[in-house]
Amino acid sequence: MAVYTDITEDDLKRFLTEYDAGELTSYKGIAEGVENSNFLLHTTKNPLILTLYEKRVEKSDLPFFLGLMQHLAGNGLSCPLPLPRRDGALLGELSGRPAALISFLEGMWLRKPEAKHCREVGKALAQMHVAGEGFSIKRPNALSLHGWQALWEKSEARADEVEPGLQDEIRGELDVLASNWPKGLPTGVIHADLFPDNVFFLGDELSGLIDFYFACNDMLVYDVSICLNAWCFEKDGAYNITKGTALLEGYRSVRPLSDDEIAALPILSRGSALRFFLTRLYDWLTTPVGAMVTKKDPLEYLRKLRFHRQVASSAEYGLAL
Amino acid sequence: MAVYTDITEDDLKRFLTEYDAGELTSYKGIAEGVENSNFLLHTTKNPLILTLYEKRVEKSDLPFFLGLMQHLAGNGLSCPLPLPRRDGALLGELSGRPAALISFLEGMWLRKPEAKHCREVGKALAQMHVAGEGFSIKRPNALSLHGWQALWEKSEARADEVEPGLQDEIRGELDVLASNWPKGLPTGVIHADLFPDNVFFLGDELSGLIDFYFACNDMLVYDVSICLNAWCFEKDGAYNITKGTALLEGYRSVRPLSDDEIAALPILSRGSALRFFLTRLYDWLTTPVGAMVTKKDPLEYLRKLRFHRQVASSAEYGLAL
Are A153 and A126 in a shared domain? Predict the structure, then answer.
């Protein structure tokens, strides 16, 4: 839930004069996104999302995020499209924050996705990877090996509060990942956070992808491993191979995976499980009780990490090799 | 900000089958209202507000609130209209909560209202008082004399934490109000919470009143005193007689005030200032730091109360008697 900055209708109307957005008829703060303040605007034209970028987002990254959405939409991906100002800029300022107007995407995220939805997600992820080709701005993945090390150092001392033995386990895991992290696999723009709440459906049809604020350049198949973690485990912690198969088949129907990419899935999945474990652990240890943000259980990702550690071959994810 | 209960799209779709609401295309939790969870729904028909009633709202009061909106809208007041289910009921259930679908009212609340807006508010308040005539369900005002006494007893012991001397001052105030509270003035359905965030405007035109969840039966002019407190003071604590004049003139252009009602304004305004002081004081003393609800400063209403205490005649509010 997130509305960190309130706005006055006067400031908003002044902001809107820079755009060809129609007349404003209402705006509501919406409870989506944890990094930024988001408002749903009704106008005499189409509804819009207004995003005010809060402090956790680097202002220097905004041209990448907004330009990427424009690039992806231009290449046919269904995703929010930033509305340019009359002067062509994608970014304005409102209430002292960088701010952008973005098209409103109809659709709902699925609280209980099924295998058929995982197939659509796999397809859309591959479509995004293909649509991202040729995007000129680069953004390294701050949440890869180096970032994990730095994040871990902030939580390490208190990790055993969460589960005894965690210090040794994660230290060992970081060593293994550092020694075995794949090199030379195809790279491109990845979404890096394609969880169920970032994928909209209308009925069983995928209507679009949202929230590109973790997007960056990295191995494309690493993005697949994130989706395996985000979409293919059940609430009880079990890996659902039917969902995994569907997601991977959906992906490969649009963009084939090489043998090397397939072989890297177990180690990449360990890495992406660790990535979400570490950010959740850090938030768990630092977010005050009763704060506006819901704390997510880091142990969910520790269990996923342990699953991937014992995977012997990528076939266990549901790949017909 | 308020989304206390999340809902799944499956539950929501099942809920919507009871209504003739069109096909659901999106729903977003919105950051409005502090008592309930509210979602803005887009459908293939008109947008709707879905309200899930949380524990602070008495379920037995819901027929009053929903029936009142229907009654007021039927009498021409611009306010949200509950959409009846196919079986005629105004209330359903969703995610274990009583829930209602209500028409979405375009418009925005004014963060910086001016005198011309106060005039519109006065008119709309009087229109509501007239439109409320004939509504058959009754709901006594739980936040009048007796309620204040009970609320005060919960905060009294810690009141001097907020300002030294407060215990004596408020005890004295409650005695004065109990001895001098008006009797025999015209009663009816009052809004009882017509603050700026509950009045929508499109440009300078008032587009409707919302949030009838404090509505009850009480003296009509008591509602006027609430609006004087809510609309006619500046941020620095000064009473703005231009706004007061506009609000009262607007009201009287629709529903005349009798001499007795006018004479009662100072004591009623003391009472309504005390009412908001007491609920804010209670929330101030009991809401944990960092909770999802913004704490409002009780001293703002203590200052207003003190202003009303020194008012010698209703003319000081801007009434040309």
Answer: yes
Strand order of the β-sheet with A48-52 is A92-94, A97-103, A48-52, A37-43, A24-30, B24-30, B37-43, B48-52, B97-103, B92-94
Contact between B106 and A25 (Cβ < 8 Å): yes
Nearest-5° angle of CA B212, CA B213, CA B219? 70
Q: What are phi and psi of A99, to 5 degrees?
A: -145, 145
Q: Is the pLDDT of residue A292 over 60?
A: no
Q: Which residues of chain A neighbour B290 with C-beta distances below 8 Å? A: 288-292
Q: Which residues, at least 6 apart from B272, have a Cβ–Cβ distance to it below 8 Å?
A: B222, B225, B226, B228, B229
CB contact under 8 A, A26 and B292: no
pLDDT for position A56:
80
d(CA B59, CA B63): 8
- Do A185 and A301 lie in one domain? The reply is yes
- Please give the torsion angle defined by the CA atoms of residues A36, A37, A39 and A45, in that order, rounded to the nearest 10 degrees: -50
* B3 in a structural domain: no
Q: What is the CATH number of the domain that holds B191?
A: 3.90.1200.10
The pLDDT score that the predictor gives to residue A32 is 74
Same domain, A32 and A88: yes
Helices (runs of H) and strands (runs of E) counted in chain B: 11, 10
pTM for the predicted model, two decimal places: 0.87
Q: Is B200 on the interface with A (CB under 8 A)?
A: yes
Range(s) of the domain holding residue A197: 115-317
Q: Best-predicted range by mean pLDDT among A276-285, A296-305, B131-140?
A: B131-140
* Token output for A166: 């965690």
- Contact criterion met (CB < 8 Å) for A25 and B202: yes
